[in-house]
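Morning, I've got a small favour to ask if you have a moment. It would help a lot if you went through both lines with me. Thanks so much in advance, here it is.

***
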Amino acid sequence: MPVHNPLDLPPDLPAPVDDGAAAHLTGIQVPSIALPSTAGGTVDVAVLESRTVVYCYPRTGRPDHAVPDGWDQIPGARGCTPQSCAYRDRYAEFEALNTRVFGLSTQTTDYQREAVTRLHLPFPLLSDHELRFARALRLPMFEFAWGFGNQPAELIKRLTLVLRDGRVEHVFYPVFPSNADAERVRGWLAEHPA
């Protein structure tokens, strides 16, 4: 099985288009849902005061696993590790803007913990394995057969939510390329002080 570097983004990835699937999110109140966190316990982003960034991504891969056939042809799917690393590298800038950062995917917390450790992420990843958050907010989703038995898994299309006091203040969708998301969001926050 060929080994790949999950930080590398192929130059010919197809760009996603804005299909309008996130247009309803700006301004809505986030429902109160406790999500398992890689830091232990749960986090309910609806009750957090001040600003919070939740970047939603399909799923992180591992360097010892090949990229599944067809993954790179899905617009916007590839790039979860570069996105997380970009938030890691700019984390102090988000702290300076008094903004929390969380990553969120439909992977289990145990799977996410490996990524937090390997990538040295200074912020937690949240698991929406049961799809309660994604379904309550009607987040844009797609299916992909991944892993044992190639059973289709429902995955979140890449988008970033800026929350203020539990309400969606701004949405970045679609997000492409993934490694530019943290800089784009940080810039928006700096231009729109709370």
Remarks:
- The mean pLDDT is 92.
- The longest strand covers residues 99-105.
- The beta strands are 35-36, 42-43, 51-56, 99-105, 125-127, 141-145, 152-156, 159-164, 167-172.
